[in-house]
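Memo to structure team: turn this sequence into structure tokens by end of day. - J.P.
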Amino acid sequence: MLYDPIQQLNDSGTTALAGNARFGYHTMPDEFLEHYAAAEEYLEAHRDGRNQIHLNAKQQLEVEPMANKAIGFLAWGGADQVITEHLQPALAELLDQVRADRKTAARYAMQESPSINMLEEDEDVRAAIVRLHSLVPRYGALRASWEICRRRAMRETADPLQLLSPLAEVGNLPDLFSDWEKARHGAAPWPWHSHVLHIKLGWLLDNGGKIWLPTCAQQDEAYHRYHPQAMTSRPRVA
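Reply from structure team:
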């Protein structure tokens, strides 16, 4: 079976990571970007007049090591580096912007939908409101890139909910909301009472929520903090 570099780059999340970096949602290590650019440049050189890339067997063999270097960057220990040195700082910057925009937007920061009254406000207020209502792509891209990195690291956390755990988004959620596990299963309402992202993030920030993109080890630490029995109940290894 011939190697399909485009599919491999897409399926591994490598293309998505590079794309999110190019959109400015977060940075990526130079080494990763260089490997990806080399593979991309080779592939683009073989794009035909119909905007399709065609490679023969020899060309597929030539591009394979280029693509594998980009794909393998995360599997070779780069996943945690991307999370701690690139994704986490990008999230911190985003949350700082949310704090500033909520302060500027004032009462409008608590509204789920824009209103006609907002048009009468000063330009800085309108700009803050627009950013608050445009958080989903940027926040979503950060969490998507984080999920790719965690999957490519090929390590499972002690948290049985893995990447879907509420603790994977808010590290101290049990300190803020005692019914968090019931809410996770739909048996209790979340305290922010809204599906709008800036309302949810605002509630968490106002109440000291630790919004994060944890490594596997960091999520393990959070899980064991609130589930100490999970450590003591482990079977002993002879």
